[in-house]
Write a structure and sequence with these properties.
By secondary structure, this protein is of the alpha+beta class. It is built from five helices and eleven strands. The protein folds into two domains: 16-94, Sandwich (Jelly Rolls), CATH 2.60.120; 114-193, Arc Repressor Mutant, subunit A (Orthogonal Bundle), CATH 1.10.10. The strands form three sheets. Strands 1-7-2-5 form a four-stranded antiparallel sheet. It has a four-stranded antiparallel sheet with strand order 8-9-11-10. Strands 4-3-6 form a three-stranded antiparallel sheet.
Length: 196
């Protein structure tokens, strides 16, 4: 449930802000962000400096420090994002979004722990196509311009490995590229086996 952009019973609606692609949402200890449009990637990094993607969040989703134990935590806009700042008194109004946050975190964790990198990548591509995709002539187009490095961070691999695996999946006809975006062909064999 998105909080209404209008005021309710004389209460002032929390401010809505627009963030440019690749900018960061400011994160504060007692604040959540509810996304109205766009996609945000939450991430942290290891002591060795390796980036770990914690989630991808879209319209209706809620994110912020109170929902994460990761330290440090960063929220990077994958696309242009319109989001509303939520203070603690607003949180009861977004219970459904908070539950979705927990379920999505669990889904991503189970995918990353699914075995070989190729199996993980296939699951993540299918998940991205379902979550952030739209119908296309040849399947489901992931409506994000996600880089090979961002995919690698998401599946816990290297950019080189992900690039090679994407090329292999494309050669085998399981995916194809359309205007710098990936089209997943769920009717083709590995995606049928790895549906979430």
């Amino acid at each position: 449930m998105l909080l209404s952009l209008a005021t309710t019973q004389g209460a002032i609606a929390p401010p809505v802000r627009t963030f440019a692609r690749r900018s960061n949402l400011p994160l504060l200890p007692n604040q959540l962000w509810q996304i109205h449009s766009g996609v945000v990637r939450t991430l942290t990094w290891t002591e060795a400096g390796e980036v770990v993607t914690l989630g991808l969040w879209g319209p209706g989703d809620v994110l912020g420090i109170p929902l994460s134990s990761a330290d440090p935590l960063q929220a990077e806009c994958v696309t242009e994002v319109v989001a509303r700042s939520l203070q603690p008194q607003d949180w009861p109004q977004v219970t459904d979004a908070l539950l979705r946050h927990a379920r999505q975190t669990e889904e991503l964790l189970s995918m990353v722990r699914s075995g070989p990198v190729q199996a993980t990548l296939i699951q993540v591509l299918n998940w991205l196509a379902q979550r952030f995709g739209n119908e296309h002539d040849h399947g489901r187009r992931i409506a994000l311009r996600i880089t090979h490095q961002e995919l690698a961070d998401l599946v816990g691999s290297t950019r080189v490995t992900v690039t090679k695996l994407l090329s292999t999946l494309e050669r085998q006809g399981f995916i194809h590229r359309h205007q710098r975006q990936i089209v997943v062909r769920p009717d083709r064999t590995p995606f049928w086996h790895y549906e979430i």
